[in-house]
Known about the structure:
Layout: H1 5-18, E1 20-25, H2 29-39, E2 49-50, H3 53-56, H4 58-64, H5 67-77, E3 82-89, E4 99-102, E5 107-108, E6 121-124, E7 127-130, H6 134-138, E8 141-146, E9 157-159, H7 171-180, E10 184-186, E11 192-196, E12 202-204, E13 215-221
Helix pairs in contact: 1-5, 2-4
Amino acid sequence: MGLSVVEQSEFAAAIESAGWAVTPPVVPQPVVDRLLADLTPLASEGRGGVRNLLDASPAVRALATSPAVRSAAEAVLGADCFAVRAILFDKTPGANWKVVWHQDLTIAVRERADVAGYGPWSEKAGVPHVQPPAELLERMLAVRVHLDECGADNGPVRVVPGSHRSGRLSAAAVDAWRQGAAEVDCLAERGAILAFRPLLLHASSAAVAPAHRRVVQVEFVAEELPAPLEWHARVA
């Protein structure tokens, strides 16, 4: 099942104004169960997640084209959008990590190439990553499918609403945003979708009661990269 037309409109309006939105459970529970069965062998205790899931997991590729996920992505980016990266994040007693306040600033590409406005470069799990212009990040959307219930005790994502509209932020600007705006915990039920703009300031604390807090983050865009750069993955 996907979002209704009214729900899509409300979802898109929330992303526009606040930079984030959360849905009720829209991914069917049997789909969540299949995802967990597919992803459990890829994860190991003590690791905080798994990258390159559009390459490694047929279930995640199917999720990226599912009605629930597509309806959320298309509400914001339009019908021509496609998935370009997917990552599993998990918090367990053995990997009860916290994440400091940050913006998501890199994209995954097929090969490194010198293109104006793209850099610096890095490598993550064997895949080239680069920081693109902020204008591209402003037009992307991260769609997180919660595979476990995420309450206040197991390290939910915290966001600063509205911070996605100020481009790439300096350390001083991050501090100013945090002092001038209220932080919000993004709580979600199993099968719910949390979506946000990559430039939205976000963080998460270590879980108070550590248990699995598994989410699959699928990143969407509706445009190609300037040649010769190409997205590392493309699932539509």
